[in-house]
């Protein structure tokens, strides 16, 4: 396959992934208007369990199939790839079915645990949580199969089926989620629990849509795939046991890294309500849990996704430099990756923290608790970003096991400190425990990168300090804007005023930060060719207008 076609396929897959993520962030706003924090907490109970069970059911199998098929296709052995597809579909069907049965059966026990053993005290009933968990469990029957087919197509360097199926799955899921919630809550005037149950069932409906797209691609491309199969070289001689041993070596430990945030949220699921009851906040525990586990993270992940996307584009070149043994270029690329992350995430973190109250009010509703949680949660975004990037760099230098060790250390810290921190600091304690866990993971990853890539942090630290100064100036400017507006109105005067404060604050803050980074030539040094292209297009447009 030509390099240009491969790059085009990668772009298509990346585009599809981020369209899906953006849709996954936006739908929460109307969903919140329909079910509020209590419904959000109930949704998190079901979806949190589903995420863990889905991981257990797949165990990185689809990603492993992609690498497995790609390897043997490159050797001209198309038969072995087809063999793993047939066997893998059976395994995913069995694992998905087993995951469905276990989650469906154990839902009553899990519901008691996540509610803290106090029944109806928080707002949601045990039977409501059981219903939601059982409704979402049905998706486990389909999603593993769909994921495997995506991995198979990617093994042929065909990214279109995955990208299109991701977008279709998300569109169908969100349409069913919002449509069913609206009908139940507004038309039928039903219960929140019923609306949320159908909302989680949308994972199954969306998966059917995504699977349908993949089946369509399979039917369309099967003649070509069969033609390649006929030209296949003699199949590799390996037993089924040997085949699966190699397959799971590809799945590798790095797959665990993608589970980091869901694992941390799962700890909150199992401990948050119980700890809040102990400090006398049981009556509002679920509302706060909905904010911490669903609504606030959706806002925080917006800058994380964008910044991580920019930074991770450099990771393939890091892999090439490490493989070729050019450590000078490798260290320069690691430096650039870290600095771009700070450049993009730091101002977003500072801005979101300073504008937390109007931001929460703009997207959801005026809430002192929501604004406070967002204010504390926003800085964790930079930790999420660095955890993802350092894990990817460790993968690039063939040290994946250290990414898993870092996750393990951080996760243990989260489990140990979550309850004590909630007892000491209330709901903010859960955020502090998350921050502490990710900080430990990142420090360990920094150490491993420094050790195995011979990387020094001097330039990164110096430029990060400079960017911190710029972010500080930006913060002061936003605070000044808020102070000036406070003489006229505040975010508490209504949603429209919150939106005005948010837009003006973001505009002023972003403008000042961009000006400072541009005038200091920092933006040019880090963004390089991309910045030159943007400026040249802008100048050409001005010339045409004149």
Automatic annotation (TrEMBL):
Broad class of where this protein is predominantly found: membrane
Residue spans crossing the bilayer: 12-35, 47-69, 89-111, 131-149, 170-188, 194-219, 247-267, 299-319, 340-361, 373-395, 402-424, 430-449, 465-484, 496-516
Cell location: Cell membrane
CDD domains (UniProt xref): MATE_SpoVB_like
Pfam families referenced in this protein's UniProt entry, alphabetically: Polysacc_synt
Its membrane topology: Multi-pass membrane protein
UniProt KW keywords: Cell membrane, Membrane, Transmembrane, Transmembrane helix
Domain of life: Bacteria
Cellular component terms per the entry's GO annotation: plasma membrane
InterPro entries xref list: PG_synth_SpoVB (IPR024923), Poly_Biosynth_Transport (IPR050833), Polysacc_synth (IPR002797)
PANTHER family cross-referenced by the UniProt entry: LIPID II FLIPPASE MURJ (PTHR30250:SF21), PST FAMILY PREDICTED COLANIC ACID TRANSPORTER (PTHR30250)
Protein name listed in UniProt: Membrane protein involved in the export of O-antigen and teichoic acid
Organism, as annotated: Litchfieldia salsa
